[in-house]
Amino acid sequence: MEVEARIDEQIIDLIASGVSGKFRKVKITRQTNLQKELGLDSIGMLALVFRFEELFGIDIEKQGIDINIAKLKTVEDLIHAGRDIVSRATGAESRDA
Amino acid sequence: MMHSVDEDRDDSLRIIDCHCHIASEEHTPVSFIEASVTNMVAALSAQGLPAPGRKLTALFLSKMQDPLCDDLVEEMDESGISRSILLIPDFTYTLKDCRLTIEESFLRHREVMLRHPGKFEVFGGVDPRWGNDGIALFERSLAEFGFRGFKVYPPCGFSPSDPSLFPYYELCAQYCVPVLLHTGPTSPVLDFSVSRPFLIDEAARRFPTVNFILAHGAVSFVEECVMMCRFRPNVYLDISGYQATLGYAPSASAVRHIVSLGINHKVLFGTDFPVFRLQGDQKSFLEALTGEGGALSELSERERALVLHQNIERLLEATVSVTAR
Question: Which one in A2, B8, B66, B218 has a CA-CA gap of 20 to 30 Å to B205?
Fold first, then answer.
């Protein structure tokens, strides 16, 4: 549980770092809409994915994980997807070890 | 008594997407996508992010795996879009890595149309440099395949008023079908210099019975598009591509602006699926327009109906009556 909470926090920080302009004033909660309330467009979403890979040291493509970016609408969606990717990546690592 | 989905739906809520494409590399060459991705690489690299073009292309291509439009139909159902128009831009003359010939591309679109009855109309496009074969194929598409319009893609290297297109426009007049032409910038592998809306003026004047739709009119060369719509009776615009503006204006202010100018009898709803699939789905894009505070929320029901379905229905109805004869 503690690990998950840390991942959640890191993902929220990641989202906050990718928000610019007037959207920086928006208080980010789990229900916050990524496009409507934070102004994240295609480039913004891609930047989030690449920052996520950098932060957690995961190459999503190499892991063969399929993420449906279009379905990530809220902060909560992103947290769930992030947790899933981290757990699948660490699972794959321990299998490979 | 059976009713179609269209008949059952409240008229003010009926939605027709006049600008879609099949999400498949079969119809969009990889060179087109790779060049488009270079702009994304530039934007991401500037933020210090390692964003190799190969990886971005792979991500984009992962959203281009719907050759039969089953996913698109699902998204249409989820978002309340009852019908979509599939457009076939002909890249086959200019870009040599196209997987299919233009004729094969037409046939695939016909298969999709037949696979999902009532869901799709198709506007076929042919590069005018294919000569008489191209004209024959286009006429076949109208007479045999049941296609309902002509798609013109000037950035492939010709003006939309180039005389080589006139035989096509004559066919459009004969079959009473509209022409939809791309305007504004596109993949950097193509020529932007022939993408200005004013370039349609000569054709629109010469063919007054043909209706011309300026694609992406709420995004690129907006003032020119609005002028053309206001002063040329046979010129319309579609708002597809408005999703590109949602990053800085989530309530689609580009669309809000267009629909405040008194030309709503000329404005058509469109999404340009699958171009923005890395940003969201059809439902979320529609919500930006029709949801609370959305760009169309302040319109009267009558005006909203014009934009969401009645204008394009009017342009398509002419075809039906001609075919019926």
Answer: B218
Q: Which residues contact B300 (CB under 8 A, 6 or more apart)?
A: none
> Which residue from A95, A85, A94, A91 is spatially nearest to A58, judged by alpha carbons?
A85
Look at chain A and count its residues: 97
Option in A39, A42, A46 nearest B250 (CB): A39
Residues of B in contact with A65 (CB under 8 A): none
Reported as a single tens digit per residue, the pLDDT across B73-89 is 999 999 999 999 999 99
For A2-96, CATH number?
1.10.1200.10
pTM (predicted TM-score): 0.90
> Exposed, middle or buried: residue B10 (CB in 10 Å: 0-12, 13-18, 19+)?
exposed
- Give mean pLDDT, residues A6-28: 89
| CA A62 to chain centroid | 17
Ordered domains of chain B (ranges, CATH): 5-28+66-324 (3.20.20.140), 30-63 (no CATH)
Contacts of B251 in chain A (CB under 8 A): 36
Cα atoms in the Cβ-side hemisphere of radius 13 Å centred on B12:
9
* Closest among B192, B249, B272, B256 to B222, alpha carbons compared: B256
Residues in a beta bridge with B162:
none
User: Is A43 in contact with B40 (Cβ distance < 8 A)?
Assistant: yes
* b/e burial code for range B191-223 (CB count within 10 A of at least 16 → b): eeebbbbebbbebbeebeebbbbbbbbbbbbbe
Domain spans of chain A? Answer: 2-96
CB B238 within 8 A of CB B214: yes
At residue A97, the pLDDT reads 56
Q: Residues of B with CB below 8 A from A37's CB? A: 250
